[in-house]
Amino acid sequence: MNKIYLPIVILLFFFCNCKEASKSKDSKNTSVEMSVPTNLKWSERMALSEIHRFPDPTLLDFQEKSRWSYTNGLVLQAMSRVYTQTKNEKLYDYIYDYGNRMINSDGSIKTYKLSNYNLDMIKSGDVTFYLYQKSKEPRFKAAMDSLHLQLEGQPTTSEGGYWHKKRYPYQMWLDGVFMAEPFHANYAMEFMDGSEAEKVLDKIVLQFDLIEKYNKDLKTGLYYHGWDESKAQRWADKETGLSENFWSRGMGWYGMALVDVLDYLPENHPGRDRIIGYLNGYAEAIVKYQDKTGAWYQVLDMPEKEGNYLEATGTSMFTYTLAKAANKGYIPPKYLNYAKKGFEGIIEQFITIEDNGVINLNKCCGVAGLGGDPYRDGSFDYYINEIIRSNDPKGTGPFIFAALELDK
Fold it and tell me: Domain 6-26+42-405: which CATH class?
């Protein structure tokens, strides 16, 4: 190389490297920027860890393409509660980014199809409500109106119980009550009046009444994951229509639904006392199946059966439900001790910490359901053989809820 040009090449190389280093320093994905301080409370640490894992909030739940989903809504709702306490703007920016990118200027929701009548799709309505309260952008209200419209037309059983999805006819799952009812109660109280609101609230309470009537096992106080009114599904008992097992996260969804809907159901509504009664029976039942570690098993009533394991998502949900219900005075104060034991179990059994402070929630059941293709039969073997992974949002969101309630 010509000696005249050599110094120029060296200078250019040095300049490019400096520029790239500066760019790296400013990047949101660097380990320096995204390290999570260990002096924060568990709730904020997990929220920041989720942002580190999924810089794009539309890809929460290990998604490859952006989509409107309950898992995004679950984690972002949890983050909104952390933001309320900490005012960490990184959290609000992350929450807003999801709503901004998934909800168009006219209020239409990307990837959402009302005609599917899928209760899971209602869950992100909670965080949309939060964004509307903060920003007052009309598009967020319009998106919520679409979710309300879905519930107005949701297919039902003969007694008015919502089908879990249009493609799952005559089926009520424990999951669906959590996905839809806290949002719908909040919506009714904020945007509806008089008899119109009462009609919605009565229908909300009816969903809990029907779960109690059909899904609850009177002997144990536990709840079966699904009930098929038609008794046509292979997973459904031909006499009762019930699925076969007490799945931890299924019951976790229901517990969170009970305690969260009470945030919005008026004090004078006749169904409120019934739901508090259901919550007390629920609490009494689940603490009987809490392991000595503080955690709960994937299949709740079979701790000794080979293959069963202590599972993080259900444990986080139970811990949150007990903590919030006790804090609110819905259940006796003694249950707070079970919640504290549950949180200790989470930390000891499931939490690991990276060198950069990012925390992981391990031993999460990745997904479980009933029916579908390939067919899910609801057997013990089915539940214990579904994928187990770390940092599933169905665990990280409830973990944040629980940590907030216990001020950990």
Answer: mainly alpha
Task: Give domain limits for the chain.
Answer: 6-26+42-405
Q: To the nearest 10°, report the CA torsion of 171, 177, 183, 185.
A: 100
With CA atoms as reference, report the closest residue to 361 among 324, 327, 319. 319
Which residue in 238, 141, 241 sits closest to 192, CA to CA? 141
Task: Provide DSSP, 251-272.
Answer: HHHHHHHHHHHTTTS-TT-TTH
What is the per-residue pLDDT across 113-167, written as a single tens digit (0 to 9) for each?
A: 999 999 999 999 999 999 999 999 999 999 999 999 999 999 999 999 999 999 9
Q: Which residues, listed in sequence order, are joined to residue 360 by a DSSP beta bridge?
A: 352
- Tokens 């579904």 correspond to 386
Characterise 346 by phi-psi region: left (phi > 0), alpha (psi -120 to 50), beta (else).
Answer: alpha
pTM of the model: 0.91
Helix (H) or strand (E) holding 171: strand 171-173
What token pair was written down for 205?
A: 């309470």
Distance CA(348)–CA(39), nearest Å, equals: 18
